[in-house]
Design brief:
The protein has two helices and no strands. It is mainly alpha-helical.
Length: 80
């Protein structure tokens, strides 16, 4: 891995912690996965945690693509 790439599971923007936690629980509910009581996900099956994380990443990529597409179409955008 390239140097400087590993965040060790920490958020790059610490102020986003609450929003990311809410997002995680929202995705879990959408997948009909019962979130753990007390917030500890360590006792959840890896398959469930992986599904939640995978869907979170897909949605974040989709949001980023939509944001970039919106900028490219705006006056003064970065489209070339």
């Amino acid at each position: 891995m390239a140097q400087g790439q590993d965040t060790g599971g920490r958020l790059l923007v610490p102020q986003a912690k609450q929003a990311m936690d809410s997002f995680k629980y929202e995705v879990a509910r959408e997948l009909n996965i019962t979130p753990p009581q007390g917030g500890y996900w360590g006792n959840m099956p890896a398959r469930d945690c992986g599904a939640v994380g995978g869907h979170m990443v897909r949605r974040m990529i989709q949001m980023a693509e939509q944001s970039l597409a919106g900028r490219a179409g705006a006056p003064g955008g970065t489209a070339r």
